[in-house]
């Protein structure tokens, strides 16, 4: 398609959003307001009545479909659902050679066959990086040799409540008065023990030297009202450290910036100037 002055114009990317929690709702609102080069093609939820209530302030009909019916109507799926649903959501899109934007990054580590499916069928899994700064630098360093990656995460108590690792070990955070280290290990181990809490650690490991060589500490800190992530990277091209303090949404496990990172990714698809990889 050719536009004014011979400038090539792309067709809008049709986007399906699965899940309407804190992240999904924000992405739908942005698409409704207008993201150049994208259009909202489908919303997939378990409870349509509840979803319609959440979207009432936008005052327009929305394209609700089942997951099966959404795939033919969209080029991109944004997964904003429980981690256990990741394969069910993204596999149809990957087999069709399409893109899956994944928020449950930890679940990729236990479902790595999805990467093989994407490779075999020309699809792509994209993990937005907004909740952890510096992943562009990590991926660049990984083109050379990374010697070590260490991450320390400090979260408010509610941000870790109910994590399987804590439940299985009878680790109670009720009434703690000082910071408590609740986990030391690898990013892979953390992905199993904290599937809804540490997607940033999984993203860091996939960007760098892998989930078995990325070391991680997790602290519960009753003095915090933000999720604080600090990383240190030592490589043959650079040594760097970074810290980010993420403001949570109404869901204490979810950072506000996570939804914004998805919207930023979508904006880049048709942007005339793209900054960052």
Structure description:
α4 packs parallel to α6. The protein has a five-stranded parallel beta sheet, with helices on both faces. It is globular and about 50 Å long. The relative contact order is 0.16. By secondary structure, it is of the alpha/beta class. β1, α1 and β2 form a beta-alpha-beta unit. The protein folds into two domains: 4-130 and 257-268, NAD(P)-binding Rossmann-like Domain (Rossmann fold, 3-Layer(aba) Sandwich); 135-254, Dihydrodipicolinate Reductase, domain 2 (2-Layer Sandwich), CATH 3.30.360. The chain contains eleven helices and ten strands. Residues 1-8 have low confidence and may be disordered. It has helices at 22-33, 48-54, 67-70, 86-95, 106-110, 113-121, 135-141, 164-168, 187-193, 199-207, 256-268; strands at residues 13-18, 38-44, 76-79, 99-102, 124-126, 146-155, 180-186, 214-220, 227-235, 239-246. The longest helix has 13 residues, at 256-268.
Structural topology:
Elements: E1 13-18, H1 22-33, E2 38-44, H2 48-54, H3 67-70, E3 76-79, H4 86-95, E4 99-102, H5 106-110, H6 113-121, E5 124-126, H7 135-141, E6 146-155, H8 164-168, E7 180-186, H9 187-193, H10 199-207, E8 214-220, E9 227-235, E10 239-246, H11 256-268
Parallel strand pairs: 1-2, 1-3, 3-4, 4-5, 6-8
Antiparallel strand pairs: 6-9, 7-8, 9-10
Helix pairs in contact: 1-11, 4-6, 9-10
What is the helix fraction of residues, given as a range?
25-40%
Alpha-carbon Rg, integer: 19 Å
Mean pLDDT: 92
Strand order in space, largest sheet: 2-1-3-4-5
Number of domains: 2
Helical/strand content category? alpha/beta
Order of helices and strands: EHEHHEHEHHEHEHEHHEEEH
Strand content: 15-25%
Record field, number of beta strands: 10
Q: Termini, distance in Å? A: 26 Å
CATH topology of the largest domain: Rossmann fold
Give the name of the CATH superfamily of the largest domain.
Answer: NAD(P)-binding Rossmann-like Domain
Give a quick account of the main beta sheet: strands, pairing sense, barrel closure. Answer: 5 strands, parallel
């Amino acid at each position: 398609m050719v536009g004014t002055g011979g400038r090539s114009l792309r067709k809008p990317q049709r986007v399906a959003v699965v899940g309407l929690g804190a992240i999904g709702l924000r992405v739908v609102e942005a698409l409704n307001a207008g993201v150049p080069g994208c259009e909202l093609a489908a919303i997939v939820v378990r409870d349509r009545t509840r979803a319609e209530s959440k979207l009432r302030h936008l005052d327009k009909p929305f394209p609700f479909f089942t997951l099966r019916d959404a795939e033919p109507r969209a080029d991109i799926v944004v997964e904003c659902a429980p981690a256990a649903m990741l394969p069910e959501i993204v596999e149809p899109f990957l087999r069709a050679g399409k893109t899956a934007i994944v928020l449950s990054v930890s679940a990729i580590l236990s479902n790595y066959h999805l990467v093989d499916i994407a490779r075999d069928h020309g699809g792509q899994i994209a993990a937005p990086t907004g909740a952890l700064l510096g992943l562009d630098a990590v991926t660049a360093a990984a083109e050379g040799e990374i010697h070590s990656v260490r991450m320390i995460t400090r979260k408010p108590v509610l941000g870790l409540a109910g994590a399987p690792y804590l439940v299985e070990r009878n680790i109670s955070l009720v009434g703690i008065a000082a910071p408590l280290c609740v986990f030391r290990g690898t990013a892979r181990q953390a992905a199993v023990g904290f599937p809804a809490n540490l997607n940033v650690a999984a993203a860091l490991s996939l960007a760098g030297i892998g989930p078995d060589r990325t070391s991680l500490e997790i602290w519960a800190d009753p003095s915090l009202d933000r999720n604080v992530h600090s990383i240190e990277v030592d490589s043959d091209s650079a040594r760097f450290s970074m810290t980010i303090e993420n403001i949570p949404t109404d869901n204490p496990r979810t950072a506000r910036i996570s939804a914004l990172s998805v919207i930023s990714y979508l904006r880049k698809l048709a942007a005339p100037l793209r900054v960052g990889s």
